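User: I'm curious whether this sequence folds into something compact or stays loose and floppy. Could you predict its structure so I can see for myself?
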Amino acid sequence: MAVVITLTGPSQCGKSTIRNLILEQSAEKFKPMIFKKYTTRRSREIEDDAICVNSIPANCDLVYEQYEVRYGFHFDDLYDLLERGQSPIIVLNDVRAVEDVRTALAPQVVSLFLYRNPPEKSKFLEEEMRRATPGTPLNDIEETAQKRFDKAKAIYRIYIENIHLFDHVILNVADFKYTHKQIEHIVNNIKSATKELKG
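Assistant: Here's the prediction. I'll summarize afterward.
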């Protein structure tokens, strides 16, 4: 049985790193893949998990907003991938969206919360500089970085208050080997659970 893997955590917590570690665990009976959402955010130079649009399509089943940016997707797309034996990885930085996906797809959901060090303003600016497309005005980059930093501080409390929604908490605060070990453990649990359900 395939599963939907949700990744949630404040900016700068390492969601892309964790996602890539999960992708590396691909095997015959575990086929993770990146799931693309619609988003109204500004296009980034590397855009592998989103489809940038001016407005979210009206027929999306789930729509949420984060950092003044809207996101949306179709549940049918998730169902189709699950039926084909693929395990979509989707970043959901909204606890209500995590709840909705768990309600719609349980027990085929594994939700992960990523924790790292508290947000640092300088890191947000560095990240926005890397993400910006050529020609983006510096003022726009700085404004976006400030907004993301302020919101990251504010929403962290929301995540902690809703920690019960998550199946696993990944502590992305030590060295890379430790983080890699956590992902291996989680993926092995997914594979074991799949065998038990099939048995």
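Summary: Strands lie at 4-8, 31-34, 37-39, 50-52, 62-66, 69-73, 86-91, 109-115, 168-171. The radius of gyration is 17 Å.
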